[in-house]
Amino acid sequence: VQLVESGGGSVQPGGSLRLSCEASGYSFRGSCVAWFRQGPGKERDWVSTLRSDGSTRYRDSVKGRFTLSKDTAKNLFYLQMNSLKPEDTGMYYCAAGPVNEYGGCPGDKNHYDYWGQGTQVTVS
């Protein structure tokens, strides 16, 4: 399994970016894809999850601004980020793994088996 992120960059506050995560060798059926981010000197924090049935969850600070979607045929996952703020700055990572014992996609980074290399987002 290989996850490759792209689409990061530098934008001004209020701008938009769309991150992509290409998943090779990964079956999305019955599983989760998540985005995490890590700001300078900070822990890696959960941003959003997408379950294979299409349900999504977002951390409160990005609700209404970020949208996680998929192109199942291409095994591509997108994080559309609008109205970006300086506090959104960080390295963004795509992660994949199975649903948990409750059938959900947790925000715990330790749950995920596969990770991409990250793509940098800078808002200033």
Key words describing this protein structure:
124 residues, mainly beta, seven-stranded mixed sheet, four-stranded antiparallel sheet, globular
Descriptive notes:
This protein is mainly beta. Helices cover 0% and strands 51% of the residues. The protein has no helices and eleven strands. Strands 2, 4, 5, 6, 9, 10 and 11 form a seven-stranded mixed β-sheet that branches. It has a four-stranded antiparallel β-sheet with strand order 1-3-8-7, with no helix packed on it. Strand 4 and strand 5 form a beta hairpin. The relative contact order is 0.32. The model has no long low-confidence stretch (mean pLDDT 95).
Uncertain runs: none
Give the class from helix and strand content and strand pairing.
Answer: mainly beta
Return Rg in Å: 13 Å
Helix content class: under 10%
Pattern of helices and strands: EEEEEEEEEEE
State the end-to-end CA separation.
Answer: 34 Å
The biggest sheet amounts to: 7 strands, mixed
Spatial shape: globular
Would you tell me the overall average pLDDT?
95
Would you count the extended β strands for me? 11
**Continuous helix count:** 0
List the helices and strands and how they pair.
Layout: E1 2-6, E2 9-11, E3 17-24, E4 31-38, E5 44-51, E6 56-58, E7 66-71, E8 76-81, E9 90-98, E10 114-115, E11 119-123
Parallel strand pairs: 2-11
Antiparallel strand pairs: 1-3, 3-8, 4-5, 4-9, 5-6, 7-8, 9-10, 9-11
